[in-house]
Amino acid sequence: MAARSLSACACGSGKPYAACCGAYHRGAKPLTAEALMRSRYTAFVHGLPEYLHTTWAARTRPKVSELPATGLPFTRLEIRRTQGGGPFDTEGVVEFAAYSPTGVQHEVSRFIREGGAWVYLNGDVR
Fold first, then answer.
1. Which of 7, 28, 34, 94 is deepest in the core (most CB within 10 A)?
2. Cβ partners under 8 Å of residue 96, min gap 6
3. Which fold has domain 1-125?
């Protein structure tokens, strides 16, 4: 974990993991839907199913055992569009592309607030 903390965050922010998505993975709450989306992407890369589970809306959340426990081979994240999802919004949309050696996953994700915190509701894979 120490080497990961010093390396660049997988979300593409250019910040060290510890000062970026690592803070959310340790319990800080993202202020925007985009920040949550970036932290979830990084959780998929690093294989953090518990984080994915706790940041998923209760009404659409799968079981932890249904989430990947090992990292996915994503190599780059591209945020294509955001709508709402700011610090004072209750809903947000983030359109993104996650690149891997085998292709691109293009998704339009929807986020809501639960108990004041941003959570992933669902998404449409394109």
1. 94
2. 37, 41, 77, 78, 79, 80, 106, 107, 109
3. Nuclear Transport Factor 2; Chain: A, (3.10.450)
Q: Strands, E, within 1-126: which ranges? A: 76-84, 91-100, 103-114, 117-125
Amino acid residing at 82: T
pLDDT confidence of residue 117: 98
**pLDDT tens, residue by residue, 63-122:** 999 999 899 999 999 999 999 999 999 999 999 999 999 999 999 999 999 999 999 999
Please state, in angstroms and rounded to a whole number, the distance separating the CA atoms of residues 82 and 11: 15
| All structural domains of the chain with their residue ranges | 1-125
Q: What does the mean pLDDT of the chain come to?
A: 95
**Which token pair is 9?**
């965050």
**Would you state the pLDDT for residue 74?**
96
